[in-house]
Amino acid sequence: MRAAVLIAALSATVAAAQQPPAAAPAAGNQPPVLRQCLICHGRSEFKKVASDGSVRPLFIDEGELKRSIHARWQCTDCHADVEKIPHADALATVNCQRCHFATNPVGAPQDVNYDAYTKSVHGRLRLAGNIKAPLCQDCHGTHLVLKHDDPASRVNKARVPETCGRCHLDVYAQYQRSVHGRALLGKGNLEAPSCTDCHGEHSIMAVKENSSDVAVGNIPETCSHCHGSVAFNTKFNIPINPVKTFKHSFHGIANELGSKRVAQCASCHTAHSVLPAGDPASSVYPANIPATCGKSDCHEGANANYARGHFHIDPSSRSSGIIYWVALFFKVLTTSTLIGLIIHILMDLVKKLRMRHAGGHGGE
Amino acid sequence: MTERRNGVPREIQRFTANELAQHWVLLITLVVLTLTGLGLFAGDTWLGRTLISLEGGIEARGTIHRVSAVGLMLLVGWHFVYVVFSERGHRQLMEMRPKTQDFRDTGTLLAFLLGRRGAMPEFGRFTPLQKLQYWGAGIGSLTMVATGLVLWLHTAAMMVMPKWVFDVTTIVHGYEGLILFALLFGWHLYIVHLSPGNFPLQSTFLTGRISTSRMRREHGIEYRREFGEQKPPAEPRAGKGEAR
């Protein structure tokens, strides 16, 4: 890459950089290499201007490095291809697996997540050479890596949407306006789902892949992690049991049995713009029902009649109105018919068997 | 052809080939419709899932159900033409009309079954219970066809009816199917084939023939109209004849 490099005070640093790191004077608890790197990278105006005019800041905030979980490591432990100063224009991408591999001697955490990542849509695209697909550091951070339970971490639940949103801009915008986004980002309600609660973390798959948690056939299961609980639904004023009633419905049964054509949760409620039915912006707001049901390949031509009635009907609940009463009538009718038929059969059977025993002519 | 006694043959033809054919179409379509329908009715239970997987999945289940439904609808049309326009069919329909005597006879029959009355009442060509089975199957089939068409053409149907009417239709179709199933594959099957004297198989539905001795016992009024007070020859074979 041909780039004009603006380096302030470069000449002053050369001598120091060529000394072996171990011999460098350590100031405080700063790793020795850091002192040398910060001579250039510690300056806020340090940047690189590419021939196309784009500017790449090269400033490293020392405060971030110190707060990072990796504070005790040297710059060159990750940027292992820096052997002298000034170093090459283009450095290799940092490879986290230098430490994070099974049985590593430095105690870096390693679990199945790396494997999961390589099989995920992100990992596969990256391994196939797509540099837009994220590596570890794209989500976990570079110079400031923090544990996920630290609220400042980029992979902390409340910050995940922002992290994913750096690439997935449209979805982030939709999510922020949804009931889930408002609850998590607006109210700080950690019971609301972040991206990873539905999509998975390291194992994210493309929606069209069957193994995805948000594949058409798996969405009801994914939503049921929260909305399958009566206590959860009650807490958030969801009057019906959405999962149970869906599973009873034709859509639910067909979905369970592998039909890809029927509606599942996201078909009507959308994936990222979920809003309560009372919100005029909701896809399930009565006035929006015709458009929602009338999507092509669904019920084309749907009109206002589609909104005249209850949704997520539980025929055994009085809140279903006339459906409850009709279902009750038929339950009584079916049961009494069955009882009547069985009584008649038993009466007939007893009479005929008795007549046969008595030598009568009830039988042949 | 058949052996006679006092001019009474051993067997007579009770149902025509046309009537037996209608029975076969009804039998086959209703068995298939019930199995495919029950799969969906109980779709969130192991029974429903098993039935649907045996039927080749949710899409195939629907196709089989609708093909059979077309068969049933054709039969309904065929039967309608038969009982309205054919002389023989129309006579059968007139015999099927419910009469007040049927209610009295049913009471007498129940008293007899309970042992409060020594003799069975005498019946005509169709007994009150046979009429109940016919009208049950008939009205049931018409209801199933009407509600089923709404479910089949749901997208168009819901453009002219509110969603709640559609939901009620779904409930009616499911439970009416269940009642029809109990009526025909429980009660009717017991009365015709499983009851003592008929078990294991009573062959009128195959041959259309009934022995005159059974006819005299179970359709006494019809027998007398045909043969007067003459006695019929002995029963030809065990298990042959017609249900009460």
What does this protein structure show overall?
The complex is a heterodimer of chains A (364) and B (244). By secondary structure, chain A is mainly alpha-helical. Chain A has four domains: 92 residues, no CATH class; 96 residues, no CATH class; 99 residues, no CATH class; 39 residues. In chain A, 41% of the residues lie in helices and 3% in strands. Chain A contains 18 helices and three strands. Chain A has a three-stranded antiparallel β-sheet with strand order 1-2-3, with no helix packed on it. In chain A, a hairpin with a 4-residue loop joins strand 2 and strand 3. Chain A is elongated and about 115 Å long. With 244 residues, chain B is mainly alpha-helical. Chain B has two domains: 153 residues, Fumarate Reductase Cytochrome B subunit, CATH 1.20.950; 70 residues. A two-stranded antiparallel ribbon of chain B has the order 1-2. In chain B, helix 6 packs across helix 7. The interface between A and B is large, with 49 and 50 residues.
